[in-house]
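From: lab user (bench 3)
To: helpdesk
Subject: output format question, protein + NAP

Hello, I'm new to running complex predictions and I'm not sure whether the block I got back is the full result or only part of it. Here's what I submitted:
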Amino acid sequence: MASAQPDTTANGNTQPRPGPVEELEALVIGAGVTGLYMLYRLRELGVDAKIYEGGSGIGGTWFWNRYPGARFDSESYSYGYGFSEELLQEWDWKEHFSGQPENERYLNFFADKFDLRPHITLNAWIDAAKYDEESGTWEVTCSDGRRARTRHLVACVGILSATHMPDIPGIDSFQGESFHTSRWPLEPVDLTGKRVGVIGTGATAVQLIPEVAKMAGHLTVFQRTPNYCAPLRNSEIDPETQKQIKASYPEILKKCRETFAGFVHDFDPRSTFDVSPEEREAHYEAIWAEPGFKKWFGNFYDIMTDRDANELYCEFVRKKIRERVDDPEVAELLCPKDHHFGAKRIPLETQYYEAYNRDNVTLVDVKSSPIAEITPTGLRQENGDEHELDVIIYATGFDAVTGELTRMNVQGIGGQTIKERWADGPKTYLGLQSAGFPNFFIANGAFFCNFPRCAEIVAEWVSDCIGYMKRKGLTRIATTAEAEDAWVAHAQELTKDLLRSDVNTWFYGTNIPGKTDSFLFYAGGAPAFREKVAEVAAKDYEGFELS
Ligand code: NAP
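Helpdesk reply: Thanks, we reran it on our side. This is the complete output you should expect:
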């Protein structure tokens, strides 16, 4: 979850700082959800481990993404760490879908409770990491010249942390304020009365837009592709419900372990076509009325594999959008028609569509006429329409899953970088290691999942592996090209029945110009992944060479 480096740091100009090189057994990159748990586990196993975090605070995603409206789309009680009954009982989630400030507080509370803070170095942007074959260690250099040498390097850099800024001419000429949502300032941003432009309508923008609409003098939303957005239905957790949640953590966590995506929701085992049209509509209405991702993961099982089944639900969602937007032309612009439900990540929203009924909000279609240029005073579309703005907010997403690693200068055997190795798409064994990069673990949890639930699987696996090596006196672990090829083939095979639409989506990297089109998740689901990695560990880390 944590971001390891700002976009601008991979400049190769870092000068090693004179002074001692920090010697470690394991260096964890990033103090987000995964990194914090990784550090906790490693220290429990007696490994001399430390986190280097590029930001000035703990929290990863929940440190960086502090834009108005940022909150969980996962049920709060399914998001916290599950390993400590004491922690589960001590922490009160205030809302069913908790907001960024509380989420950041939670991760800081976790770090304090387990005394992790002394082992976390903040403001430590890692610019480069180089494997030294002779010593079998990684030499790490930060952007301020600070250095470390570590036996194991564990990247907990998150899957949505490498900011994507669009390549629009004139972007630096803008004289007003501009922000990317994932680099939102620590100080509150005053948008009162201002002319604000938001570029993008993904899950981030969908949370942001209703909040900005309340503050801005005028808000202009620049939309290229509309999304199927579904109501979040957030509410506060009352004391009685709080008690029930705390009493049912074992069942909640068990459920999350069993479901495909680690949520409390599970697909309906019936096909869309097993039921009558009336029953189908009643099911759609019932899941629509529920909070959270029930409208996706509680749907008929064939929604993600059968195009006709999917289209029936798409039309249901379009009807819901049309009911909520007053102006029929605006409603049509907000209705997706070029992709199936789930082709892009479904944003969950609170009063998103109602925002477009406000007098101070305008929706501009930048598909029919793209943004040609950012000007000193706003932006201009290709059709010549000019939009005067005081503030531009880029809600333009991320170079997901691989971006943080390909931007960091990670050099394995023979000086090969991850960027070079993954030039034709990511190659890993279990998503956890790439051949040619010994002792370098990628703990991203790259499978479609309620994030902490999959982070838990990888953090436990990697820390156990490092603990195992320590116990056995082993110092080197490297996957083989054969194991990697077999895993990549298996992962690709799993994607062949998935529906695909020809739209930009970070699921396949197609939101980033020039990035290889490749499904960036393990499509077998979280339980299958957990089983697979457990089997590998039980067979003394089959597919890895240990020495
Ligand atoms: P995103 O889904 O990739 O959306 C980026 C948006 O920017 C898209 O609407 C895209 O349009 C638009 N865009 C990019 N370049 C553009 C250009 N040159 N001109 C016009 N529009 C442009 O990114 P995101 O909204 O930040 O969400 C990323 C992921 O973060 C989500 O899918 C979700 O997994 C996660 N997230 C989670 C939460 C949560 O848990 N509550 C909240 C927010 C985000 P196109 O679609 O046409 O490319």
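A quick orientation on your result: Residues 1-13 have pLDDT under 50 and may be disordered. Let us know if anything else is unclear.
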